[in-house]
Amino acid sequence: MRGFIMICAVLLTAGILPAQHEYTPGDVQDGQRLFAASCAICHGPEGDAVPGVDLGHGKFKRASSDGELIPIIEKGIPGTAMPPNNFNDFQAGTIVAYLRSMAASIAVSASIPGDAARGKAIFEGKGNCLNCHRVQGRGSRMGPELTDIGALRRAVQLEQSILDPDAEILPQNRFLRVVTKDGNTVTGRLLNQDAWTIELFDSKERLVTFQKTGVKEYAFIDKSSMPSYKGKLSTQELADLVSYLSSLKGIEAK
Amino acid sequence: MTARKILLVTCLFSTLAWSQVSFDRIVHADKEPQNWLTYSGTMLSQRHSSLTQITPENVKNLQLQWVYQARSLEKFEATPLVVDGILYTVQAPNDVIALDAATGRVYWTYSYSPAAESRPCCGRVNRGLAILGDTLFMGTIDAHLIAIDAKNGKPLWNTTVAKAESGYALTHAPLVVKDKVIVGTAGGEYGIRGFIAAYDVTTGKEAWRFYTVAAPGEPGGDSWKNDAWKTGGGSVWVTGSYDPALNLTYWGIGNPGPDWNGDPRPGDNLYTDSVVALDPDTGKLKWYYQFSPHDEFDYDSVQVPVLADMPWPDKNGRTTQRKLMFWANRNGLFYALDRTSGEFLMGKPFVEVNWMNGFDEKGRPMRVPGKTPSKEGTLIYPGNQGGTNWYSPSFSPRTGLFYIPSWVNYSSIYVKTEQEYVEGRTYGSGVPRSPIPFGRNAQNFRKEDEGYGAVRAVDAKTGEKKWEFKMNDVTEAGILTTDSDLLFSGGREGYFFALDDRTGAPLWKAAVGGTVASGPMTYSVGGRQFVAVAAGSSLFTFALPQ
């Protein structure tokens, strides 16, 4: 057997997968990305937007085991709004991994109804969130763009990022500190890298490339540059803020 | 002599010179480094060229000469052949192209449409051709072997090697030995019973067949229990080598089936994950060495057997010239074997390995207890793609170094399941999962401790690492070295690059914009050296300015 992608092709039959897998954090992250890109538009980021279905809590109409879910993800359900998807078994398996991970966590703020309008006011006012984040063309580009964050991340994940930003830094949000041979230190979000170059989005919002031959040293910054809002927001404010972020589903075609 | 006679003689001579790729020429391919007559360059499979026009000093001046853009989005894995200025390659899955090796202009294209039943596990790919006389040979993904007229691209014969609908496929470049063309069957994920077979170059008639999974009553048959041998895998999908003095051809054999659960197939499962030495005239087994007995990690031993003659100490410590075989295995270990007898001489990890922790006196690896696929998942180094894989290594007789496309600090979590065999369907009984995100662009943000790709150079005599060239992403690229101490390779990052083969220092690179999943090669036309590599869906050639 060959490429990693090819592993997937090995799993062409539904019966191969056991009823419930053990999954790795890598699977969950891969699955989350695929879920956000392909599933959340109908099922919602919480997986509960389709009546009678709650993907994050094992509530399905036609499947119960992982092995039953995978062909449904791939082939869709004829006669319903569930379309076929161009996933192989490995990719579909990572989506199942993500769905199985969802039930394990519930947002604290979920216990209180949030108000998105109030949350927006906190986001733009007290929270100073626009200093680092950008929503629909407003704010800084240094931190993750949040215009569609409600389509990508669950409420529980948003809440965790607000209260404990260091708990999970997604690979695409990693920051790098680069020290050039001529003595400049540049910090920025890592956009790309290879054996020869480093591509950063730097603190002046520039897209910059460093040739590694001109770099003295570079290292990942393990701590998030985002401050924790733990103790700085009331539970209600937190619920409002999460509610606002969850409402951000991206731009709409006009 | 009249002008007419001179013309006739000239025509005859040029035709002969062009057409007659005799077996003697292939055996002595090192004597004509302007050509590339077999998959790995020569029968020794060192992927090392004696061309020296391009040097560490001038390599920085290399310029793109021409590009052949395949009309295929499959991975371009073929290594071209070059014969006296004509370059032959394969556009995936199975179109043969003849081009002018200096200009890239196409002479002819032979298009073959594989049967709809073909189901290669891992891409509709092809790794190249073989040639003898005027005839090219190609294996197809629907398990046919086709002979093609090298002058006009017309098929000469078409032999069905195996049943595509059962999961058999041919993906590697065939190997010509004397009057036979040898191929092996891919399909190790489909519960095939793999084999290597030889066909008459003129008629396409099967001359012999060697099953890579031993049946009851055959030598090695007792390494299987029950009926597991019937679905035992043992695929072959990378070209073997040939030693004319010993008259032995060497082939690496793939994983046993099912891949990730060894329970249905107790025993060593011969000859999976082995190298076999066969008599090319009869297909009889001379010797074998099994790298990974009772494999549960998909550690196909489908690597190119690299042959070299070097001084080597014997059991008494006396150093004599030995006929050796070097092998960087998917299981993470670098080996030296005596290719006359198959005697195990050395095995050393070249990347992180945790499934074994040493060898017994016969060279059998000692498994680490508990390091086996489980229902909960077991972390194993190297991971499913291996410390290396089918990507061609290189050996330079000048440096004594063996160069390995390596996946460093790479692991998988092996989960085993139970599965019934159904003909023509995948038969893996498990899944290797990744501890780190493996999705699109994930490698761009990867930390070093999350694994990386590298060209690693090891001393062939000791297995000790001499240097490495790190890439951020992993690599599927083969390696070429030359007598001017240059090393060419690439990777998934989309570069084709040259290193100093003694130090690993980078000397030149070209951004080719797509994964290099092929082995670079070199040739010359009119005294001008070219270096060629397939990347993305295109074949790129470079040379020094004229």
Overview features:
heterodimer, A: about 250 residues, alpha+beta, Cytochrome Bc1 Complex, Chain D, domain 2, SH3 type barrels, 5-stranded antiparallel beta sheet, two-stranded antiparallel ribbon, 7 strands, about 35% helix, globular, disordered N terminus, B: about 550 residues, mainly beta, Methanol Dehydrogenase, Chain A, 5-stranded mixed beta sheet, 4-stranded antiparallel beta sheet, 2 helices, about 35% strand
- Structural category of chain B is mainly beta
Number of helices of chain A: 9
Give the number of domains of chain B: 1
Topology, number of strands of chain A: 7
Could you give a quick summary of the protein structure above?
The complex is a heterodimer of chains A (254) and B (546). Helix content of chain A is 33%, strand content 15%. Chain A folds into 3 domains: 4-102, Cytochrome c-like domain (Cytochrome Bc1 Complex, Chain D, domain 2, Orthogonal Bundle); 108-168 and 227-247, Cytochrome c-like domain (Cytochrome Bc1 Complex, Chain D, domain 2); 171-221, Roll (SH3 type barrels).
Description:
The complex is a heterodimer of chains A (254) and B (546). Chain A folds into three domains: 99 residues, Cytochrome c-like domain (Cytochrome Bc1 Complex, Chain D, domain 2, Orthogonal Bundle), CATH 1.10.760; 82 residues, Cytochrome Bc1 Complex, Chain D, domain 2, CATH 1.10.760.10; 51 residues, SH3 type barrels (Roll). In chain A, α2 packs across α5, α4 packs across α5 and α6 packs across α9. In chain A, the strands form two sheets. In chain A, strands 6-5-4-3-7 form a five-stranded antiparallel β-sheet, with no helix packed on it. Chain A has 254 residues and is α+β, with helices and mostly antiparallel strands. The longest helix of chain A has 14 residues. By secondary structure, chain B is mainly beta. Chain B has a single domain, classed as Methanol Dehydrogenase, Chain A, CATH 2.140.10. Chain B has a five-stranded mixed β-sheet, with no helix packed on it. A four-stranded antiparallel β-sheet of chain B has the order 2-38-37-36, with no helix packed on it. Chain B has a four-stranded antiparallel β-sheet with strand order 3-4-5-6, with no helix packed on it. Chain B is globular and about 60 Å long.
